[in-house]
Amino acid sequence: MTDLVVKSCGPMTSLQDRGRLGYQGFGVSPSGAMDRRALAMANALVGNAPEAAAIEFMNLGGAFICEGGDLHLALVGAGCSLSIDGTPVAPQTSVLLREGQALEVGHPRTGTFAYLAVAGGFAVEPELGSLSFHLRSRLGGLKGVPLEAGDRLPCRPEAQDREAMQLAVDLTEESGPFRVMMGPQDDYFTPETIRTFLESEFTISPQADRMGFQLTGPRLEHAKGFNIVSDGIVDGHIQVPGSGQPIVLMRDRQTAGGYPKIATMISADLARFAQMRPGMSVRFKAVKRDEAVAAARRLKERIASLPSSLTPVRFNLTTEHLLSRNLIGGTIDALAPATADPSD
Amino acid sequence: MAHRMDAPLPDRQQYEMRDLRLFRIVKRCIVPTPKILPCGDSAVTIEFGDTIDPDINGMVLALDDIVRARAPAGLIETVPTYRSLTIQYDPVATDYDALVKLLNEETKDLAPRNAVGRRWRVPVVYGGEYGIDLEEVAALHGLTPHQVIEIHSSAVYRIYMIGFLPGFTYLGGLDKRIATSRRLHPRAKIPAGTIMIGGEQAGIAPMDMPSGWHNLGLTPVRPYAPGRNPVFLFAAGDEIVFEPVDASRWEALEKAAQAGEPVAEEVRR
Prior knowledge:
- The complex is a heterodimer.
- By secondary structure, chain A is an alpha+beta fold.
- Chain A folds into two domains: about 1-165, no CATH class; about 180-290, Cyclophilin (Beta Barrel).
- In chain A, about 15% of the residues lie in helices and about 25% in strands.
- Chain A is built from five helices and 23 strands.
- In chain A, strands 21-14-15-18-17-20-13-22 form an eight-stranded mixed β-sheet. In chain A, strands 7-6-9-4-1-11 form a six-stranded antiparallel β-sheet, with no helix packed on it.
- In chain A, strand 14 (about 200-210) and strand 15 (about 210-215) form a beta hairpin.
- The longest helix of chain B is centred in the first third of the chain and has 17 residues, at about 55-70.
- Chain B has two domains: about 15-110, Gyrase A, domain 2 (2-Layer Sandwich), CATH 3.30.1360.40; about 120-265, Beta Barrel (Cyclophilin), CATH 2.40.100.
- In chain B, about 30% of the residues lie in helices and about 25% in strands.
- In chain B, the strands form three sheets. In chain B, strands 5, 6, 7, 9, 10, 12, 13 and 14 form an eight-stranded mixed β-sheet that branches.
- Chain B is α+β, with helices and mostly antiparallel strands.
- The interface between A and B is large, with 45 and 45 residues.
């Protein structure tokens, strides 16, 4: 067995895949990768299925060493740098990490979450059908806690004999307001409040984690109280507690909750929203189902076509040359006025 | 027909004996038409009411059975709660209009789930170091600790839903005489197996967890045990009765639970 050994990493570094589906009725949060576009890109580069488990970095990078064999891997997301024994690896490429070499993942710069995928995935036993780590359930990962120095991630030696690849498309190049569908409890708010919600700018507060992003902005007044009998929650629900400050619920959210949800972010925009950092401003735009489903279909198709956008890395291309081709362009500037609709 | 928490929970066998047509007529008068609430492009919630009521919860569970059995294309999972069913699906693989049509058809003459859930006997050692709030709760209500134990362990509790944490049961059926507002200062950590009450609700801690409820006792039963088969002991719609045991019995059961035994016993009504 070849191991990727953790030398150091941030406190919320974890394995994440598609998520733990099918157990919400038993109180188990789905969890899963916060940016499934970046996860799919990293996986495509090493020949994995789009939702295979990868190491998710949150806010901080990490250092690893390769033991017992070579590993073919790729890092995508949040403008993180990657280097092997101090030599930078070109963005959007996969690379062979030789036995004994040190891998360094830089801190996320343009967002919050980055994904390190290894060819063949990690040889870790799933819990309730998933490798995704979930803090409150103490499920997933290696032992129900985040990754920490000294952890050994077993990998499949037979999957590592691959050619280094580069990816010509970047699914994370998107901008514009975040699209929502109103409801399920928009009737708990007055028309004025709904206008305020759709026409104001909100700021991502420092209370932003895998469970949810607390926003600050104009107070959203409730028309008929803020306590409801707990009902089901989904990713992207925007709930408004008594403070009048909305919270966008993310993948580690609970399965049910007792605050009215004014709107729900469309599934295609959730990954981009997850990369918004504290202090950034966001706006919401109400859309109809047709547009939301079309965006979901487009994202699904783009993820499915990633393998066809791979080309072998040519050895005469230097890192500088690749960088000059702006393969990782499109850092999102949420502070800039939103003009383009990403579905256009 | 708001359910009063001090009234005995209706026996679901009553429904079997009722004339179904009469039941449906009565139901239309007491339960408003369910609301279909879209939750973005990947989920929809069917809301049967906005109160905690066994009939409403029974409808939720009945619809849950139907949706899971019919498994519409693109279905990912269903989440039953007190009063509503949330259906999560793949927006690309699911025909939303067809799903809504199915839901409208199936809710039209829906009766609360007839099949009787299981009833579980859960052993509890009350008070002392096992239930550090027992005396305080008793004093608050002008009762002796013994009376609180008797009241708590003579009710039949219904599992309305499971949520918050893996295997956390939201139990209805707490006797109003011991209903107790939540603690002013929640505790950061209470042990797995804590038998607790909060407001008119009761619960069993499936793992160490934060809680603002009052701890009456401790059970060796693990509602959730990764690695055990089954991982989750209880399901929404099941019933629970608590059986007071002494500390030595608790020790023996705790050993069995550690060895992977369910310890909770399924009992006949």
